[in-house]
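writing this on my phone so excuse typos. first protein, seq and then structure
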Amino acid sequence: RSPGPRPTLQKWPHPQIELDRPAGWVHVHLEDKSAGPAPRVLWDAVYDMGGTEVLKSTAPAMWGQRTDMELICPPLHGPPHWYELTISKEGDAKRRPSMMQDFLGSQVITSYRPDHDPQLYAFTVDLDFGDDAKKKGILSSLLQEQPTHPKCTVM
């Protein structure tokens, strides 16, 4: 049974990437390295940067395994996740790709939910309203209205 479609960014198919030099055709590859025994591909696409330093978040993919990037929030129950993003030149069809010659850059990204960070709990405040039931009721209703979707932090 398939788990269904994975969530992607709503307005943009991928984040903006800025390189230190102009590039033409680039291959972008993002893997979740903590998804299990084998990495899971979250983004794999080729783009024409047109000789600029910026891959805009609205740039359409020319082709790839996964042209819309999957969100990188860790699952609700589980540890933080780490990801590896690699960007390389897309080779000419006439020559074999070489990571040594085509490599442009890589970055390791960590994502976690607030409950993974013990430093966040250092700033929690226990509110005591005493006998004021009205204030307790307001606080209780505000807490119940909070969305249940887990937020994540990306570093």
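second protein below, same order as before
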Amino acid sequence: RRVHGETSLPDIVKMPKLTTGGLEAWYMDDDTTADQRLPHRKQPNEPASLGELAALGVEAWQLSGEEDGEFETLRVEQGYSYKDFVCCCPDKLPDYENKIKSFYEEHIHADPEIRYIMEGCGYFDVRDKQDRWIRINCTKGVLITLPAGIYHRFTLDTNNYAKAMRLFKGTPVWVPINRAGEAEAHESRKWYEQTFGVVAN
């Protein structure tokens, strides 16, 4: 199932509209002291639409959460030639506490980040064009792609469990480039700012 999103965008952004309940996103509150795994919704809640995510280059599909024919068709169509699996939970992820902290450091990648949630749930947080955080609730069956150069981070919810397939076009490169380091000057960030109309801070 693939349908264009809510806004008209250049061909580089092909945001399919997820089925109702497949993806929920909202603008985060400013509480940096509470547990990162909490929802961190504003009061009242301020939803972020699929169109707003599409304008940031975020793509998503609602699938079954299995490696079925629908998933395989999409994988081939998008050119995702590499895959592996990661289970984020205290019992399965080595050095769990430090890994979760590192995932939550604001960073970019030089290539798109592609995750297919097969079990459990996790939050991807992305910066909008005004540098505000949007939290994306990724549950079973959501395949999400974040473009190269977008500021983002990841955390589990309070259930502390998510199994995801990591996908990549070509040879995988998982190196994060932290915002506190070299991200601002990195070529992938420059590309992102130019492509999606983001003004550098």
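Residues 87 and 163 are 4 Å apart (CA to CA). thats all i got for now
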